[in-house]
Amino acid sequence: MNIPAILSRFAGKGLLVSENGYLRWYVASMSIGAVVVLALLMVLR
Fold it and tell me: Which enzyme class, named as a word (predicted)?
């Protein structure tokens, strides 16, 4: 296996995601999901 090539490929995809603005949507959706899960945990307790 060529570890440096695999790592650079993942780093390139990470940069591509952040440049397209998808990272912003990903972080926003994860934050909303976390808030919903915490709210459900507090209500069900």
Answer: oxidoreductase
